[in-house]
User: Fold DUF4279 domain-containing protein from Conyzicola lurida.
Amino acid sequence: MSIFRVSINIATATRTLEELDEFTGAHATRWSGIGEPVHEFDPAGPAREISQWHLDSGVEGDTTLLEPHLAMIRPVLERMAYVPFEGVLYSSLSISLTAREHGFVFDLEPLDAALIARAGLRLRVDAYTAE
Assistant:
C-alpha cells in the first residue's frame, strides 16, 4: 500500500466556505457547495444537501509514511481541537491508499490521536487498487 492523499473533510448544511476557512485557519483545497454533485456515481444523492470542505495535506508522490502528511495538517488539527465552534459539523480525517506491492503500517502518534479525538474527527481509511 502507499498513501496518495490524506485530508481533513468537513460536511455541514449551515456554514459557508469562508466560515470554515476561518474556523480551521486554512483555505480549502477542494470545496463543494450545497446543491453540487459530490460523487460521480451518485450526482443526485443526499450529499447535495450539504457543503463539503476538504484540506489535502499537500504531500506529493506516493509514500508509505503517514507522518509527513500529518505534519502538514497538524496545525489545522490543533485549531479544530481547541477553537470552539457553534453548530454541528460532520468531520473526518481521511487516509486514501493505493494497493501496491508494499505493505503499509498505520502508525499514529499519541499526540495526533489525541488531537483527532479532541477535534471530534472520525478516522476513515480507504484502499484502492492501482488500476
User: Anything to note?
Assistant: The two ends are 13 Å apart (CA to CA).
